[in-house]
From TrEMBL:
Belongs to the prokaryotic molybdopterin-containing oxidoreductase family. Residues 514-545, 762-788 are annotated as: Disordered. It comes from Nocardioides szechwanensis. InterPro entries: Asp_de-COase-like_dom_sf (IPR009010), MopB_CT_YdeP (IPR037951), MoPterin_dinucl-bd_dom (IPR006657), Mopterin_OxRdtase (IPR006656), Mopterin_OxRdtse_a_bac (IPR010046), Prok_molybdopt-oxidoreductase (IPR050123), YdeP_MopB (IPR041953). Residues 644-701 form the Molybdopterin dinucleotide-binding domain. The keyword 4Fe-4S applies. Residues 122-493 form the Molybdopterin oxidoreductase domain. NCBIfam families: Fdhalpha-like. Residues 515-530, 776-788 have a biased composition (Basic and acidic residues). Its cofactor is Mo-bis(molybdopterin guanine dinucleotide); [4Fe-4S] cluster. This is Formate dehydrogenase major subunit. It comes from the Bacteria. It holds the Pfam family Molybdopterin. GO terms for cellular component: membrane.
């Protein structure tokens, strides 16, 4: 190991650091979005595309999973800056043809960042990397399918193949894909969710009986209190700010819980309103709690304890709908405030102020995202959220509920359709009844286990339906070596990324239609369907001519590959599926709970909402038939002296591993990405200064160390002892074994690091070694970073 990181195409020495603005969106956002779009699409195409974005007769935004308002309340421009960027990224006129691959040997491409690779344009035809070849070369679709099918059929066991999914895949493609994979004989269906909201899904399934959020957009509008914990909506779910603004106008209070003062929560100018453009905007958060990274479990135990002390409990709800309240109350009676203050970095007064906001609200919506789910104790934290919500009866009534805010535009839909390595027995039974074959019952590999299986030679074929596994997964060097260990890696993609250039012995890139493109598979206009973060399902139709005549839809690719691989085994209707996706929707209606009359319902304006028993009728489909309080010990991260707790997050100019540009406007960063945000006192305490170049070295408790070189130190308003830097540049630092208990999600927001003077600056000059001494940490625990 110790391979150098690819970064020769970005001049990181040019990064500029300025002040973060205190208001977000407004005219700047509109301008930035349009400039970006017009640059890559031209004026006419931009207008044509954006007019159809998030409209009932148009296509669903490829960005995040935030829901659309009812059709009657939709704005003619129902999108945000980052939605426009997501669309532009796909609908760009830049094309990448076979000449590109002739010019660039793999050795060159391997040295490029995801930014450079993505900027080259849309992939226009299938490409193959033959064993031992130096270049990708064109391949016919037939030969490509034969190659994959040959590898799959040659495996000793179907479990030697891994079928990954990113969360953009439509419901139709996802349903056909999982059917193919299970008919082939494995449940190895890891997905991006394993790295994302898995902790949420696990915690909610165990406590309320369903792994999805319980609120609608209307509930947010009607809430008395909206809590936004571990989430940066100004960048990652920008239209959520519009909903928060409306809630606020209706009298709600807003509590932000975040180590960082994220700009969108502090001030917001709605770009869709004249008032927003000319005025000063709305201050959204009434209270911001600058919690220490990973302090939320302790914080919510403290809030729970105070609510109990004040008897701010909905006793009627607790008595009729829940189990385990007494044990929870007993546990919190012993709360140790010293531990709470250490874990949260907050004063007791701050915690009390937040708890009062809960006490004074009779309709609370609790929203969260990656700041909560990507820690070792994430499942426990989400369960503690549930405890507090249940105690006050804030579920299954207007203006209240649990609101995990999902990431990818169809990540929730993919799960509903069966993209899950641990699909429920009832789902597999329904599949069996509908299609007459015996799906495998053993759980399959999740993302982290898939990496181990590839690394150890137990998996030999990797198939990716979208996504960028190599860059998104933790422990980049380990993951890259695992991929290189495969016999075959295949990616169904729109744009080039690092997963295409860090390959198995043979590799394929299969170019797919994007969501903005007209899908004429089978000679007819096809539509697909997607599900948003609030369980609303609706149709999506792309308006644009495809980037190339050689592109195929994901449905087409899955069905044709299934035919090539399975032959006539199981007699599944692949040709029928491909010729009219309605045939898939009819099967979805028979297999997936809540999807009766699916084909008809997705076409209603605004679609339909999937059933959610806790939301709809306060019934809880757990084993006990009740919502369950849980007891979790407080888990305090103990970071040894001289180390920082690093969270890895998104800049304003990226969608996961797709990098749109090099600015993070809301945090004052321009022209670079290798920056690390640290409290000014920590910078001084560690013997560094603003602007120093450092290497980030992560420490894991087995003694192993990982380095990500060359970050500029940026003083930033974050709690002492905490730091932040962008993903995916920091993924080499996340140990594969560092995952959340119960969900196995990489703990990419709890990385213990030390800073070292950068070994080589751009000019090749080494910096003087650090003068101050770094004390060694507390050795009491075998796991140096976690103590209970
Ligand atoms: N433009 C854009 N939109 C996106 C994405 C994108 O990359 N770009 N990605 C999509 C995807 S897949 C996802 S999952 C979502 C991600 O949406 P977010 O979860 O908002 O994404 P992150 O940038 O990871 O931000 C995590 C937030 O949690 C805070 N945080 C970190 N650690 C803690 C902690 O311990 N406690 C608390 N309370 N807060 C903490 C961080 O300061 C940050 O504000 O966005 C989706 N939407
Ligand atoms: N350190 C760290 N790591 C993280 C995270 C973090 O916060 N910190 N976040 C995690 C999270 S929340 C997530 S969701 C994962 C994301 O993991 P992934 O979903 O695997 O990654 P993306 O970057 O979203 O995938 C982008 C690629 O998808 C392909 N693509 C785009 N559109 C389409 C399409 O329409 N069809 C097809 N077939 N392909 C398409 C393009 O080739 C593009 O390069 O990363 C995780 N990794
Ligand atoms: S909020 Fe999300 S879904 Fe809506 S336009 Fe913006 S990126 Fe797209
Ligand atoms: Mo995500």
């Amino acid at each position: 190991m110790g391979r150098r990181a690819p970064r020769h195409d970005i001049d990181e020495s040019a990064v500029e650091v300025g002040d973060a603005p205190d208001a977000v969106a407004g005219t700047t956002a509109v301008g930035v979005a349009l400039r970006h779009a017009v640059e890559q699409m031209g004026v006419t195409r931009t207008a044509r595309t954006l007019r159809k974005l998030n409209q009932a007769d148009g296509f669903d935004c490829q960005g995040c999973a935030w829901p659309d308002p009812d059709p009657e309340h939709r704005h003619p421009a129902e999108f945000c800056e980052n939605g426009a960027k997501a669309v532009t990224e796909e609908a760009t006129r830049r094309l990448l043809d076979r000449g590109f691959f002739e010019q660039h040997p793999l050795a060159d491409l391997e040295d490029r960042t995801d930014y450079w690779l993505g900027q080259q344009g849309r992939i226009t035809e299938p490409m193959v990397l033959r064993a031992g070849a130096t270049h990708y070369e064109p391949v016919s679709w037939d030969d490509a399918f034969a190659l994959v099918a040959g590898h799959l059929r040659g495996l000793e066991s179907p479990d030697e193949a891994v079928f990954y999914t990113s969360g953009k895949t439509s419901n139709e493609a996802a349903f056909a894909y999982q059917l193919f994979v299970r008919a082939f004989g494995t449940n190895n269906l890891p997905d991006c969710s394993n790295m994302c909201h898995e902790s949420t899904s696990v915690a909610l399934s165990e406590t309320i009986g369903i792994g999805k959020g319980s609120v609608s957009l209307d509930d947010i509008h009607r809430a008395r209190l909206v809590v936004v914990a571990g989430q940066n909506p100004g960048t990652n779910h920008p239209r959520m700010l519009t909903a928060l603004e409306e809630a606020k106008r209706n009298g709600a209070r807003i509590l932000a819980i975040n180590p960082l003062r994220e700009a969108g929560l502090v001030r917001f100018k709605n770009p869709q309103k004249a008032r927003g453009i000319v005025g000063h905007g709305t201050a959204l958060a009434d209270l911001h709690l600058p919690v220490r990274v990973n302090g939320d479990l302790a914080l919510f135990q403290a809030i729970g304890a105070l609510l109990l002390e004040w008897d701010a409990v909905d006793h009627d709800f607790v008595a009729h709908h829940t189990a385990g309240f007494d044990a929870w109350a007993e546990h919190l009676a012993d709360l140790d405030w010293d531990v709470v203050e250490r874990a949260t970095g907050l004063t007791r007064a701050q915690v009390v102020e937040a708890a009062e906001m809960f006490r004074d609200s009779d309709a609370t919506v609790l929203c969260w995202a990656m700041g909560i789910t990507q820690h070792r104790n994430s499942v426990a934290t989400v369960k503690e959220f549930v405890n507090v919500i249940l105690a006050q009866g804030n579920i299954g009534k207007p203006g209240a509920g649990l609101c995990p805010v999902r990431g990818h535009s169809n990540v929730q839909g993919d799960r509903t359709m069966g993209i899950w390595e641990r699909a429920k027995p009832e789902f597999l039974d329904a599949l069996q009844a509908e299609f007459g074959f015996d799906p495998p019952r053993e759980p399959g590999l999740d993302t982290v286990h898939a990496i181990r299986a590839l690394r150890d030679g137990q998996a030999r074929v990797f198939f990716g339906m979208g996504g960028n596994f190599v860059s998104a997964a933790p422990d980049t060097e380990v993951t890259e070596d695992a991929m290189r260990n495969a016999d075959l890696t295949v990616h169904v993609s729109t744009k080039l990324n690092r997963s295409h250039v860090v390959t198995g012995r043979e590799a394929l890139i299969l170019p797919a239609l994007g969501r903005s493109e007209r899908d004429r598979t089978g000679g007819r206009d096809q539509r697909v369907s997607v599900e948003d973060s609030m369980s609303a399902v609706h149709a999506s139709r792309g308006p644009l001519a495809p980037a190339s005549p050689h592109l195929r839809s994901e449905v087409d690719i899955v069905c044709t590959l299934a035919e090539a691989t399975l032959g006539s085994a199981h007699d599944l209707p692949w040709a029928e599926f491909r010729s009219d996706y309605t045939a898939i929707r009819r099967r979805i209606a028979n297999v997936v709970p809540g999807c009766a009359a699916y084909d008809e319902k997705v076409d209603q304006p605004g679609g339909f909402v999937l059933p959610h028993p806790p939301r709809d009728s306060r019934t809880f489909p757990t084993a006990a038939g009740l919502a369950v309080f849980s007891v979790s010990p407080i888990d305090v991260l103990h970071v040894p002296e001289g180390r920082l707790l690093l969270q890895t997050l998104r800049s304003h100019d990226q969608f996961n591993t797709t990098i749109y540009g090099l600015d993070d406007r809301y945090r004052g960063i321009k022209g670079g990405r290798r920056v690390v945000f640290v409290h000014p006192d920590d910078i001084a305490h560690l013997g560094f200064a603003d602007g120093d170049r450092v290497d980030l070295v992560s420490e894991w408790h087995d003694g192993s160390e990982r380095t990500a070189p060359g970050f500029r130190v940026v003083p930033y308003d974050t709690p002492r002892g905490c730091a932040a830097a962008y993903y995916p540049e920091t993924n080499p630092l996340v140990p594969l074994d560092s995952t959340a208990v119960g969900s196995n999600t990489p703990a990419s927001k709890s990385v213990v690091v030390r800073l070292e003077p950068a070994r080589a600056t751009k000019a090749g000059v080494s910096k003087a070694p650090l003068t101050g001494s770094v004390e060694t940490g507390d050795k009491r625990s075998t796991d140096p970073i976690h103590q209970s």
